[in-house]
Amino acid sequence: MGTLYLVRHGQASFGADNYDQLSPLGAQQAERLGAYWRERGLAFDAVLTGTLARHVQTLDGIASGLGAMPQASALPGLNEYDSAALIAAVQAAPLPKPDTPERFRAHFRLLCDALAQWMAGTISPEGMPSWDDFSAGVRDALERVRQDHQGKNVLLVSSGGPISAAIGEVLATPPEVTIALNMRIRNSAVSEFSIAPRRLMLQTFNSLAHLDAPGYSDWITYA
């Protein structure tokens, strides 16, 4: 039985003009994950990733720590939703920069509300697919893994939204649980699915075993 390793990107640039870039710490998180796997002799038979810069940069960091990997297949269906468009669909006035704990919490409260409305089909954020189309892209990637990679180790690098959608698909969770999972996935965290002939099954969720060693406690981030 093979294993699908779903990795959320390293810390990006939350609050900056361009979020879609890894921070220096995000690059370190990714490289550390690759080194952790190298130390344990893990190798991958196939690699899937979204097309966003933070996905590619995370994969580059993992490869730097791990060593040789197969050529990645880039799938737009693994790209993250547009959080700014979601919030704009439920909040007319622009939000202030989330540079305080209170503003940070307000940002994510609005995002959770917008996610719930998007998933229910009550809002259509500008420039975004419907929730049904978004989740279909994730399902297509999972089906590709199940059909093409039996008995293999597969790496999938994406974002919190697609990863929580994948877990929600496998566990048949209601929308509020999928959103809660989304908000808890940490940067560079690993979730694992076993790849069985008829289905994928969740084995681990949101693991940061590569950051358990002394000296890495301040590397744990969420945004």
From TrEMBL:
InterPro entries assigned: His_Pase_superF_clade-1 (IPR013078), His_PPase_superfam (IPR029033), Mito_Ser/Thr_phosphatase (IPR051021)
Pfam family, one: His_Phos_1
Keywords, alphabetical: Hydrolase
PANTHER family xref list: PHOSPHOGLYCERATE MUTASE-RELATED, SERINE_THREONINE-PROTEIN PHOSPHATASE PGAM5, MITOCHONDRIAL
Protein name: Histidine phosphatase family protein
Taxonomic lineage from the root: Bacteria, Pseudomonadati, Pseudomonadota, Betaproteobacteria, Burkholderiales
